[in-house]
Amino acid sequence: MSTQEKVLEEVLEKTTEQPNNEIVLYNDDVNTFDHVIETLIYTCEHTPLQAEQCALLVHYTGKCTVKTGNYDDLVPRCSKLLEEGLSAEII
């Protein structure tokens, strides 16, 4: 095994150690665009433009990943989205 192969193998192992989780927001017929946008800004620290784009994606495609990261960081954010009446889950 060459040195280059060993280095590549080590890099691949390091990148797979901490998989990112995602909060996926789902479409519903209850919440307004304004409510979804405001909630994403507050809960997921989105910019207004980013929150608006996510709201549009959810509306037209049925779902959108709104936040990625460490599971422990995502749990309270997802809980807040659920408390606000949005449909979301961590995957």
From TrEMBL:
GO biological process: proteolysis
Record's protein name: ATP-dependent Clp protease adaptor ClpS
Domain Adaptor protein ClpS core, residue spans: 17-83
Native organism: Aquimarina hainanensis
Membrane-spanning intervals of the chain: none
GO MF, one annotated term: peptidase activity
Keywords: Hydrolase, Protease
Pfam families in UniProt: ClpS (PF02617)
Top-level taxon of the source organism: Bacteria
